[in-house]
Specification:
Oligomer: single chain
Strand content: under 5%
Radius of gyration: 22 Å
Largest sheet: none
Number of strands: 0
Length: 95
């Protein structure tokens, strides 16, 4: 009897995996889409877009890769701004 249930278990496993990918894809895409809309309307776009990519990254490697690039660009941008601000403050204090 165990041999007859193996194809059934594989089918169920694949169906559950597909359903999970579908749910994660729909929820993550919706969050990213809301973030993109909030770029032009008031709202926390810079929070929702990475959050949506993180949700999509649960199941999709391309989303993890894109989230990594967004995170690196954000760190580079904020780091350079912080360095510029600190340098300007030091120059103002020296005068």
């Amino acid at each position: 009897m165990a041999r007859n249930s193996e194809p059934y278990n594989d089918t169920v496993r694949h169906a559950v995996r597909f359903a999970r990918r579908l749910v994660v894809g729909v929820i993550g895409s919706t969050v990213v889409l809301l973030g993109l809309i909030m770029i032009f309307t008031p709202g926390p776009a810079m929070i929702l877009i990475p959050l949506g990519l993180a949700i999509l990254g649960i199941e999709f490697a391309w989303a993890r890769h894109l989230l990594r690039k967004v995170r690196e660009n954000f760190q580079n941008a904020t780091g350079s701004q912080w360095k510029k601000r600190k340098k300007a403050e030091e120059e103002a204090n020296d005068q």
